[in-house]
Amino acid sequence: DRWFKELHPFNDNFEDLVYKASSVLQEKETTEDGLRSDPRERLHMLRFEYKNAPPETPAAPTAATPKKELPEDVKKRIEENRQRALRLREEKLAAGKAAEAGAALSSPAGAKDLDMDTRFQIEERRQR
User: Fold this and answer.
1) What whole-number distance in Å separates Cα of residue 80 and Cα of residue 87?
2) What is the pLDDT of residues 26-51, one digit of tens each?
């Protein structure tokens, strides 16, 4: 009962409200034009239109809405940051390659995949 009060904090019982809603949807109405209106059918038509509506696309910039131009100092700062990021990336890649090369020199290629006996024989041959 506590959950119903949190979800629907009104005095009416939730089941009574559901019953009222379903009874309203079952009653056919007569419009001012004399036509019979079925609320349930209208609800289904609204759902159908909503589900099958084409997705809205964001408005494309037109000539009426010019693009904002960035000031020169902002453009310069952006380009400097881009160049610094590229330089740091290259340094990181170079450090990784150097670490790989150092690891390859200290141990034979693929030594991680070899068992202990094979590693021992490789080390013996290297010492000769």
Assistant:
1) 10
2) 888 787 888 888 888 888 889 999 99
